Amino acid sequence: MAVQSNKKADCAPLVPGPAAAVASLIVPGLGQILARQIQRGLILLGSVITIIILLAWRINLLAHREIGALAKLGKALDRRPFFILFLIICTVILWLWIAWDAHKQTRPGKQGGLSIFVLVIVIFFSLGWQISQINLYKMVVELPDALPPLSRVLWPWKAAVTYNTEEVGAGADILIGCDDNPPPPPEEIPSKPYLMAEPTCGELSRLDENNKVVKGSILTLTGRGFAPNMETQIWWKDSIGNEFRPRQEGKYVSLKTDDDGGFTFKLIMPYRLIPPSAVGKQIHRVEARQVTQVGGPIASDPLKLTIGRMAETIFMGMMATLFGILFSIPASFLAARNLMSGSWITMSLYYLTRTVMNIVRSIEPLIWALIAVVWVGLGPFAGIIALTIHSIAALGKLYSEAIESIDPGPIEAIQATGATQLQTIMYAVVPQMIPSFVSFSIYRWDINVRMSTIIGLVGGGGIGFLLVQYIRLLDYRSAGIAVWFIAVTVATLDYVSAEIRARFV
Prior knowledge:
Blueprint: H1 2-11, H2 17-26, H3 30-34, H4 38-62, H5 69-79, H6 81-105, H7 115-131, H8 136-141, H9 143-154, E1 161-176, E2 194-198, E3 201-202, E4 206-207, E5 213-214, E6 218-224, E7 231-237, E8 243-244, E9 247-248, E10 251-252, E11 254-256, E12 263-268, E13 283-299, H10 301-334, H11 337-340, H12 344-362, H13 365-376, H14 380-404, H15 408-416, H16 421-455, H17 463-472, H18 476-504
Parallel strand pairs: 1-3
Antiparallel strand pairs: 1-13, 2-6, 4-5, 6-12, 7-8, 7-11, 7-13, 9-10
């Protein structure tokens, strides 16, 4: 009984309840510490300090041009009234609740309670929502704009094949600025497509002083002798040979021929800058073109490049895994406590190896790839170096833990025969760790192949290098081909690795 009384006395609060509450009103969590709930008090104190710092940071970002705390707070309230008010109110409630909680912690049998931490989590979630700039309204409203590129990524196979094409067309000259001698209509050649423009001169569209488009002259295009019922594109060529497709109502100008291969179409002369150095008559040309496919489908350049880069990615993962295994096996023996606990020298090697592997493993392969690119330049070799460095540390840790978990019985039996350290490893350690080694090695190969698709983003070779180029060019169909190949390759490798693991493990 005397022992129990001493224990209760040791756990008794240092101050009464009201004093603990006042202490937490002054410094959040101090009352809990005085009530001998030290861990609880430190957590609440750290939470309040972190919340205040994050809230002040967000207010400063929202009103970074204002001078003075009150001016910044006012501007922040004006820009994000709900967010700022909600967090301020919740922080005040949390502060008062901490004081009440400190009072409760001084009562016998009333310690604990997790409800106050729910409010802490709500505040941190609200801060995270703002810091992460989550905008569900924007996500829903702008979804229609994202659907076209997403559909190209999800179904990109139009860009996987191409065809040889044959182009036929006809054109007519257009004088910019009419005079007494406009270009005559082109001469019609039997059995050849023909295009006539009326008139054969006019003014280009231009921008006024408010940067609004002033429409140019209207040309009536009359064509005949084209292939019937076929899409025909309209092109414009300026006086120095640059050509482009004009737009009307936001769309490229194209039309469809009738059953006789003819058409009539009104075209607004497009906007085109005339260089100040241009002298003399400016003759532009309007053309109607039909493009037809010739022969069967052939693999497109994006498909060929993707297949080549995907093969490069697979071999990058394979080579990095092979090199990682070769270097990590000796490192794993040095990082196994049960093998290195013989003397202070071996234990020093153990701690040194473990420390180095933890540091190397904590740095992502993407960072190692950046370093390797500076070292050996762009290309797959830089990617292999990055993956190998990370694989050595990761596999060394896994291998060493597998060694530490082996049965000590065979080791003791071998050592009892007077075997050396090397013989003990060869005949007592290696046979037990082979299944784990095989499993970890296959798993690492799978990881390296998937990581090979990422390190290409920083120039480490592989399909990632190609993928980022397509995304920057907004070529979503070609990017979609790369994404599909990545998904199929990873799924295939996952199946293969599972089969190998089932046979050896």
